[in-house]
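Notebook p. 47: complex prediction with magnesium ion.
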Amino acid sequence: MRNLFNRILYFLLFISLVGASNNLNAQSQKPNFIIIFTDDQGYGDLGVYGHPTIKTPHIDQMAMEGQKWTNFYVAANVCTPSRSAIMTGRLPVRTGMYSNKRRVLFPDSDGGLPQTENTIARLLKQSGYATAAIGKWHLGHLPQYLPTSHGFDYYFGIPYSNDMDRVNDLTYMEYFADSKTENFNVPLMRNEEIIERPADQNTITKRYTEEAVKFINSHKDDPFFLYLAHSLPHVPLFAGEEFLGTSERGLYGDIIEEIDWSVGEILNALKKNGLDENTYVVFTSDNGPWLIFNEQGGSSGSLFGGKGTSYEGGVRVPTVIWGPGNVKPAVITEIGSTLDLLPTFCGLSGTAVPDDRVYDGFDISSVFVHAKESPRQSMFYYHGDHLFAVRKGDFKLYLYKNNPVGYPEKLEVLERPSLYNLAVDPSERFDLYEKNPEVIESITKLIEEHQANMVFGETQLERVIN
Ligand code: MG
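Predicted complex, structure tokens below:
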């Protein structure tokens, strides 16, 4: 009898050990992913990227413990197309999220990211992930385009930019001279419902953070993907009362320092839940600084140009990758892009990427994990449907030029291309066209190959509600 009892006890112990090890395996095989995406933050607007007065201790610490990337690109120089690229791993010209007439989606837009596109959220969800989008979406505000129609279980945020739905008859500059949150009748949504209008933008960074921490706390036992897209520091600028008037950099600095606080809260939530060693956190921005707003806009640091241009300052963004025990600490000067996050997260989680379409991203997980050479060796800089420039290795060849502050737009075809060595000359000051015929030839060939295989999607950004 005693023997039988012992056998049953051992059997139960065995079952529970197998169960525990399966749980452990499930967790260790499927890492969590968090993207923290800021809006219009420049390359030079973080302490670790050399800003003299903005203090960002949490992001700086992330960079020390993880990777600071110095050649990381978005796929477009304004919000909507850039956001479509991070979500889909595809150039906006393929997915229809581009236009030469309307650069982004507006409250009267009838278009959005087509449901036929695969998003990071949709693929990871199919792989067993819990998914949440918190913050600015800007890939379509109609129900069929919202995050909950694109693979996210949960959405909390504003569906387009924080400067839209203006209520007064002021000039553009008057709106931003003395920002009031009630001047912008932007809706705040939970899933498909408007819960507040106008959204109180003074408290919005704090509330996004609380939502993000809540999501992490409630999914500590499942693999999860959290996309936290701050609606700031896009103008109009609003800081929480704890941060208002505290930064030497002024209001723009207050906001970046509040976002840095938010990053600290997210990392703390991961540590408290014991998830820090099984989570990859990517901090980056959707495009360069909005320079026409002077001190209300950010800084691209040593780079030339800003938002609305395909100069380096418009599309090269501050990027930190963090994952203690998984990400090899380093300063990475290899080329990377937000386009690469979809295949990289799929690679790290063992999720298949369907091969029914062309992706423009590379799996750069070997750079995250081992700080190896990046599989990405080139970058195509589109402005609407114009291929503005192409980078291959250290060299960037321009086919067009534009106003360096982006507005008013002055797009001109160059009589002859210009060429810069970005490793030596990141500020793009010295044209090397005459001296490097073999480089020109090699990039021209790359452009021909790229264009031969390019199929443009039908534009979604020119569709307007009648
Ligand atoms: Mg933006």
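Notes: Residues 17-27 have pLDDT under 50 and may be disordered. The longest strand covers residues 412-421.
Next step: compare against the earlier run before touching the bench.
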